[in-house]
Specification:
The chain is α/β, with parallel strands linked by helices and 153 residues long. The protein contains three helices and six strands.
């Protein structure tokens, strides 16, 4: 990997600082939006999840959007069954976002659906973890540096 010059490092550091500043300033609003999005969720078992995110467009502008989970029936997932986090990533892709800076997810408390470990807050389900791995391998707005924040609803 080539060494960056001083100006390039400063520019990169300034861009990172700008993204982090937008994230930290947006978190309280994103928490409120994620909690509000749970009311739009469609879950056959009443497990209503909402997410909100801040993303960066190619022109450097920041945008926020929210989403809710959809799983209308018990049983295997169908094409329309998506977690709130999956909806967020797809929206960012469709909008041509360069990067998802962070995602806040509000969900009822439950132990991890795969391991059974109780972390005190719900985290990505096994389907979302697979989706995230696939999207990271594919490339796009979801980055290894995307911040994830989970809150109990």
């Amino acid at each position: 990997m080539p060494q960056l010059g001083t100006k390039q490092r400063r520019r990169r550091n300034r861009a990172l600082k700008d993204k982090l500043l937008h994230w930290y300033k947006a978190v309280p609003k994103l928490v409120d939006e994620a909690l509000a999005a749970t009311a739009r969720a469609q879950s056959w078992r009443g497990f209503n999840v909402g997410s909100a995110s801040i993303s960066m467009l190619p022109n450097g502008a920041f945008v926020t959007f929210d989403a809710a989970n959809v799983k209308k029936a018990e049983g295997p997932r169908t094409e329309g069954d998506l977690c709130a986090e999956m909806h967020i990533v797809r929206q960012a892709e469709q909008m041509g976002c360069e990067e998802i800076v962070g995602i806040v997810t509000a969900a009822p408390h439950q132990p991890d659906d795969f391991s059974g470990i109780d972390l005190g807050v719900t985290t990505l389900c096994v389907y979302c973890r697979k989706f995230v791995r696939e999207r990271l391998e594919k490339g796009g707005p979801l980055k290894p540096t995307t911040r994830l924040l989970f809150v109990n609803s």
